[in-house]
Automatic annotation (TrEMBL):
Entry annotated with the keyword Cell wall biogenesis/degradation: yes
Organism: Propionibacterium ruminifibrarum
Name used for this protein in its record: L,D-transpeptidase catalytic domain
GO biological process assignments: cell wall organization; peptidoglycan-protein cross-linking; regulation of cell shape
Domain of life the protein comes from: Bacteria
Classification via Gene3D superfamilies: 2.60.40.3710, 2.60.40.3780, L,D-transpeptidase catalytic domain-like
L,D-TPase catalytic domain sequence ranges: 250-375
Catalytic site positions: H333, C351
Compositional bias annotation for Low complexity: 44-66
GO molecular-function terms, A-Z: acyltransferase activity; peptidoglycan L,D-transpeptidase activity
């Protein structure tokens, strides 16, 4: 702190005049009236009152004190003997949060992590117009948290696989979904237009306007720690990850009327596969689905959707070369028992039956994330639309409709 020289007022001209005035009374005060023609009355060199040298101090608190700060609290910053210029909060990992200061209220640009100690640094201008930095510790509270998981955080994905984040419960309030979206960021290389959108208020996806350009990489940053998701729950942590898209575009197009599936790669037809899809009463859903899982073998069990395996319409068997496209149980898979019906009649319980050769070949061509488009209606059957929550349903929306699924649209 610089030293301020204090001048004794008794030794100044002003001090002498003040002393004389005190002894002379009213007459003396009149005699001291300024003579405009006397240059000795010029007071331009008079000494001003000294500035206080007291050091500044800061007190930081929140609506919940300093030891149980909620993740979405603002901070109250009170400075004595100075003025706060800026504030930042630094966590144990060294990451600094900036924010906006309005009067004595500081609002961070993002929420705090739960159960974390922060060093709050306040840049202060003291009474001598010098800047200094003051600090104080705060600790955030233990809070109940909701789990989320980035799904399909893989490389070599198909061109229809969105950035896909699933929450363990629905996020019912639009303002909470919007708060989550605002803390989610993607960096797409090469750049492509896209949008966040919600499905069933529990799945957050970012998809491009059209299918990804083959070879795309996507870096995802989720600054979710401390984001409020209900009146009493928060998200617990941040996540950074990347996905990459395969170097070729593979698309499957199935016609339910003709019972034929065409397989394209980069726009060229590779093969037309005869299929047998869902029979009347078990119609295969129409719309754009996405391959979600691939299995060398999978146990097909009708009891998983309410039909006992031992019943006349039931089954339980090990099936080779299976690719899941809905959560309700639709697969592309080998079906040696229906080869005679493939390309002719719909006979399955909703799956897309292929010959053993075609099913094995298809496993070598496709990626998790490839689109599978179903058009038309099974002969004599009912057209049933694929529901967005029954799989990766972002492509059931046209572009304008998908953008409206965003909570910040």
């Amino acid at each position: 702190m610089p030293t301020i020289e204090h001048i004794d007022p008794r030794l100044t001209r002003r001090g002498v005049i003040a002393a004389a005035a005190a002894s002379a009374g009213a007459i003396g005060l009149a005699a001291c009236a300024s003579d405009p023609d006397n240059p000795s009355n010029d007071r331009s060199g008079a000494t001003s009152s000294p500035t206080s040298t007291e050091s500044p101090s800061v007190t930081i608190t929140s609506a919940h004190g300093t030891d149980a700060v909620l993740p979405d609290d603002t901070l109250t910053v009170t400075v004595t003997n100075g003025t706060a210029i800026s504030v930042k909060a630094t966590g144990p990992d060294g990451d600094a949060y900036t924010g906006s200061l309005d009067g004595d209220t500081w609002t961070p640009d993002r929420t705090f992590w739960p159960e974390t100690e922060y060093t709050v640094s306040v840049q202060v201008m003291n009474l001598q117009n010098q800047e200094t930095t003051l600090t104080q510790q705060i600790t955030t509270a233990y809070v109940d948290t909701l789990v989320y998981e980035p799904v399909y955080a893989y490389d070599d994905l198909g061109v229809a696989m969105p950035v896909y984040i699933q929450f363990s419960d629905t996020i019912d309030e639009a303002e909470h979904r919007a708060a989550i979206e605002k803390q989610a960021r993607v960096t797409v290389t090469p750049e492509q237009p896209g949008s966040w959108g919600w499905v069933e208020n529990r799945i957050l996806m970012w998809r491009p306007k059209e299918y990804w350009t083959p070879g795309t990489t996507v870096d995802v940053h989720l600054a979710f720690a401390g984001v409020k998701v209900s009146d009493w729950q928060y998200l617990a942590d941040d996540t950074d990850y990347s996905i990459s898209i395969a170097g070729s575009k593979v698309e499957l197009v199935c016609d339910l009327q003709t019972q034929q599936m065409e397989v394209y790669q980069d726009g060229s037809l590779l093969r037309t596969c005869p299929v047998s899809t869902g029979k009347i009463g078990h119609e295969t859903y129409t719309g754009t689905k996405v391959i979600m899982q691939k299995y060398d073998t999978f146990t097909m069990d009708s009891s998983t959707y309410g039909v006992p395996a031992e019943s006349a319409d039931g089954y339980k068997l090990e099936v080779p070369n299976c690719q899941r496209i809905t959560w309700s149980g639709e697969f592309l898979h080998s079906a040696s028992w229906s080869v005679g019906s493939q390309g002719v009649t719909a006979t399955s319980h909703g799956c897309t039956n292929l010959s053993p050769d075609d099913a094995a070949w298809l496993m070598t061509v496709t990626h998790i994330g490839d689109p599978v488009v179903y058009n038309g209606t099974t002969a004599g059957g009912t057209q049933l639309a694929f529901e967005p929550g029954d799989g990766i349903g972002c492509w059931t929306f046209d572009w304008q409709s998908w953008q409206k699924q965003s909570a910040v649209a």
